[in-house]
Amino acid sequence: MGDTCGAGPPPRIPPSHFQTVANSARDLIYRGFVGGQMLSVSCLGPFGTRLTSSATIAHDFTVGAMSATLVEGPRKHELTFSTLNNQISGTATFLNLWTPGMTVAVSTSMKEGSTDGSVNVQYLHPMAAMSAKVFGTKDRPEAEVAMNLGSLNTFAGGRFCMDARTRHLDASQIGCGYRNGDTTATVLCDPFVDKSVDAYFTRYIQPQTQVGAHVTFLLERKLKSVRIAGSHVLDSQTTVKWKLDDVGTAAGLLQFSPNSQVTCGLAAAVNFRNLRQAPSVGLSLQVLPS
Question: Which GO terms describe its molecular function (predicted)?
């Protein structure tokens, strides 16, 4: 006689951290639509260090960055230099530091003679994702707390950021969301600072085709903005994306990956309400280590 005992219910998937609840929609609508030229090349250096060099050119403005990342078991160390404000920053991240699910990240940066830093503590529980962060300069420290309750599929939470000296609320956000295999919906509200509402939605209408939207309401100013977007996977190497907004701008993106290490992108945007304005064209190339 066989075993009649089942394997039990699947393990509960905890919610994501509140700061990332709308990332799937943001990636669809905004990611990859570069307005200039971008090149990023990564390679493996000594001791397994990942070295990355990137350059971005947009509107006659050039920003370069170099970073070195070393992962040692549950520890991750990253050192970055950027030509933007001549900034040098370092971050050390520790996974499962004191208990399973806890991540602690300590960082510091220097730019144009000033120094700031941050300590970020995150904890992931089967029914909640929590984080607390202290950051800023010595003269103006800030504190942020966030919590997201529920599961990966249904969640509600909030985030609040406050100036530690003046106790003035700098940012606030509460929201809820839902996701299943092919649909995500998230509503975020800022009731105290910007007094705004953001609604995100994505859905796979076919296995290779996804559509989405982002609507923003500024309640006090009675303004609204709408963006819709979509993507379609042509084959294992090629993806096309498009987006439209309510100010008349249409953009398209073609991404081609000949292999898992190389991704090329060609983006173009035009404003149909101002055809005298030159179209914006962007090129990107990303090379990852094998």
Answer: porin activity; voltage-gated monoatomic anion channel activity
